[in-house]
């Protein structure tokens, strides 16, 4: 059995309980060494064989898996964040199916969640944005034209942009051309949840300048949208005048509500 495990965004204690247990039981771990925190491997058995996939091709990864499968080993394929985002796991799963090797996926905490935590942000604020676009700039690996940054920017919603820190000048131009105002709040979150985490608040226009001044060139997420400026409408979820399945609306306004109203 092969288990694809989401390692989480970086902090060694942000892997799931299940993911940690699978690592502890693994006989073979193949991990994305360029992104996964190596401290996550400290809980592996002394006899566990560890491979860094940053130095391997898909074919080499499969050879390790095939060899481990013949020996009935527990194999963990450790990916950063959650494997479903930019993890290139589909091609691996298809090959495992072709080889008749069983697999399953253990989800993880994505770095876009850790970035929101670092920013003290909510991506879906009432009256501001109720959608989140997760995407990246086109680079050596292309992006379909209909999914270009410029195309998504036209919606004016919250955007979380992966794998684009080295193209921030071009990213700014695409965001502005697509419809964001130059002063739209933005943030660069470097290594979210790691000890060396950096949060750089800026605007769409100043993305490249901000990253240059901080010396950030990779391993960062870009967050864009008005959700970062602190203005929003109160949600209906806890509004005393709003009826839900669990609570009837009330015309009574409590003390805390009155104080907020006065403000």
Descriptive account of the structure:
The strands form two sheets. This protein has a five-stranded parallel sheet, with helices on both faces. A five-stranded mixed sheet has the order 6-7-10-8-9, with helices on both faces. Mean pLDDT is 92; it is low at 256-263. The protein has eight helices and ten strands. It is of the alpha/beta class. A hairpin with a 7-residue loop joins strand 8 and strand 9. The radius of gyration is 22 Å and the shape is globular. Pfam families: TP_methylase. Belongs to the precorrin methyltransferase family. Keywords: Cobalamin biosynthesis, Methyltransferase, S-adenosyl-L-methionine, Transferase. GO terms for molecular function: precorrin-4 C11-methyltransferase activity.
